[in-house]
Structures are given as C-alpha cells and as structure tokens.
Amino acid sequence: MTPGPERYELTWAGKRASLALAEAPASGTLAAVDGDGPHRLIKGDNLEALKLLEPELGGQVRMIYIDPPYNTGEAFTYRDMYQGHDRWLSMMAPRLILARRMLRDDGLILVSIDEHEHRNLVILMTEIFGEDCYIGDLIWKKKSGGASQAFAFAVDHEYIVVFGRNPGASMFDDTQANVSTRYPHRDERGLYSLERLDKQNLGYHDSLDFPIEGPDGRVRTVHHKNPERKQARWRWNAETVKARYDELIFRGRFVYTRNYRKASARPRSLLIDARFGRTRTGSRNLIDLFGTEVLDYPKPVRLMAHLVRTCAGPDDLVLDFFAGSGSTAHGVLAVNEEDGGRRRSISIQTDVPCEPRSKARKLGFQSIADVCAERIRRAGGELAVFEVVGA
Ligand SMILES: C[S@@+](CC[C@H](N)C(=O)[O-])C[C@H]1O[C@@H](n2cnc3c(N)ncnc32)[C@H](O)[C@@H]1O
User: Fold this and answer.
1) CA–CA separation, 391 vs 379, rounded Å?
2) Which of 80, 283, 378, 386 ranks highest by number of CB atoms within 10 Å?
3) Last residue of a domain, one of 260, 293, 320
4) Residue 73 belongs to domain spanning
5) Are residues 145 and 272 in the same domain?
6) What's the pLDDT tens digit per position in 246-257?
7) Closest C-alpha residue for ligand 1 atom 25
8) DSSP secondary structure code for residue 93 in this structure
9) Which ligand 1 atom is the nearest neighbour of the CA of 327?
C-alpha cells in the first residue's frame, strides 16, 4: 500500500507480514495442462497464480470480479475458514494488491461480500485503491421470502463493492434495463407506455394545478386523491402544455404523455429484479448442467452476465480469482453469445481436493477446479487449463 496522506488506517495483527507477501517473488511456475482457447482456468492458489500472470497480463484486465470466502464462520464445501477478521484481512490484502496491478487504466474490480466483512473490505480497498477510486456498492437481492432464523432482521441481500483502478472509471449502459417494464403501445418512434401528466408525489404547487382542455372539448384537472388536502400537480407548467400540446394524450378523465422505451440506461445500484437471479437461480444453473448443485451458493449466471455487460466491452479480459464453479466465466460466455463479443476470461481456483462425501466427489470430480473446468466447457467455452506447480 502506498503511504498516502490518509488520516486513518486499518490495522490488524499480521498486517505487515501479509503485505510483504504481495512483494515476495513467485516461487512456482505455470504449467499448461490441457486444452487451448480464449478462456483459461488456472488451478492453484490465487496469490501465486496472480504473481505468475502479472508479467504477461499485468495492466490488461478490464474487469475483475471476485466472490471470496465471506468469513461467516460456517463451513461450506470450500470452507469459510478465516475465522478472525485479522486472518481474513491478511488473506485478502496481498491478493487485492496484486489484483490492482492486473487492472487496465480504465479497469474495475467488483467484490461480492456480506455484512460479516463488508466494512473491513471497504476500508481495506480504500487503502489499496485510494479513496477517490471507490465507486460504490451494488446491493444484490439474493433471496426473496422464506423462513429465517435471524435474531433481528432477515438479510435478503449482499453487497458488490466496486472500485476503479483510477478515479473516473465508468461502467457501460445497461442494455437490458427496460426489459422488465411493459411498453404496450407503439408508434413510428418505437414502443411506449403512457404516463399520467398529474403526479401525486412531486409536491403541490398552485401554478401547476390548472385546467387543460382536450381536443374533444372536455376539460381535465389535476386529480387530487383527497380534494381537501391538495397534493398532486401537473408535471408540465402551462407554458410547456401550450408549446407541446400535440404530444399530450387525452383519455377518459386523464391526460398522459408517452414514455418511450430507451435502448439502454445507466446501470442502477439496486439489483433486485428477477432478471438478476437469486441464490437459488445460481443453484439451478448448476443443476441444469450437472443434475445436482455441486457447490453451495454459486452466483447466478444472470447476475454475472449483468456485471459483465456493464463492466467489460466486447474485446475485454475478465478475471475471477476465487472462481468456485466458474459462474463468472459462464456469464462472460453468455454475454458473448448475446452481443457477438470476444471477451476472454481467466478463472483461478484452488485445486484442493473436495471432501470425500461432497456432492462434487459423488459426481466424480476431484476438486472444485475440475467442476469449474467442466462447467466452462459445457457452457461452450474453449478452455486452456493451467496448473501452478512447484510453489
Ligand atoms: C464463494 S466461492 C466462489 C463461488 C463462485 N462465485 C461461484 O459462483 O461458483 C469462493 C471460492 O474461492 C476458492 N478459494 C478460496 N481461497 C482460495 C485461494 N487462496 N486461491 C484460489 N481459490 C480460492 C474456494 O475454493 C471457493 O471455491
């Protein structure tokens, strides 16, 4: 971390030693295991793998997405084993330092996290990337309803913390933003819905509460839900109504304007629509490929596709160094199929063998890395597999 003029700093037991790990030279090498193609899987520890990739790909990655262990204290298939905050921070810090070196000047890094480490992660990343590179958090709705054992409130969401390699890094428009709104009408300009000219929640204003006569001779007025307490108003003032009278649509008691469907829109911070999927959608994606879930809590392909669509252009390189079942690479393949892009992906996943009684083992996979490889192939990705050896 570059010493800066920060007035506060995150400290934890083992910080100095963990930062030194980022600077220690790589001890292993990358060995090609099999296959060839624009998508790569590297089996091995990500700290070592990132160091080995840096000479070739440092400064070239447009988008990094990671879904690290959340440190929940529960044992998952892959073991969420970083019990203390200090150990979790020591695990993350050197990897984030290396991640930053992989990013292109306009690169973005997105990190999934829940309430256990969100606050620490944001401060840690602020130290590594810089205050002015913090773009913000996306909130993903991971489940809807269902029973909960929570003491206080049931947590339905998690975070995706977004930083840029440099200040001002921006995202692409969301081309699917309007897919879930209904646009039932069409004219020569395209699809549209009707939007009432009177609005209840903009705040009352005398000058925005006047009668408008339609071409049918019928006079329409602002509709107040409670005429005793006027709260509604027109969205247009009298001058605009006069100037743009032809654009108004008079139907029954109301006046409307046309709300045209836009080709795309700025991506929003709340990812709550069904189009982003939920945790169970992620499980379903794996069941569709393998007949069983294989791994707990995989991210849905739809969520990953949305992030790829808004963060990586058609020729960009996408990296996930906590790849798990390979949902990021799957998202990359899905978006390439959608827009004809040639995005490449790199997935890094430890090759530690799964528990003998795990679902992955029952399916004949030795490790989650093997699941990841098979998934990328089944999703149509041409894959080159590498292994970190001698580390
Ligand atoms: C939360 S899971 C990622 C799940 C993934 N997003 C998906 O949708 O399938 C985190 C993954 O990171 C892997 N992992 C943990 N520590 C690692 C390390 N040091 N190097 C490489 N992979 C690691 C774990 O084995 C686990 O599969």
Assistant:
1) 31
2) 386
3) 260
4) 28-175+265-389
5) yes
6) 999 999 999 999
7) 78
8) H
9) 8
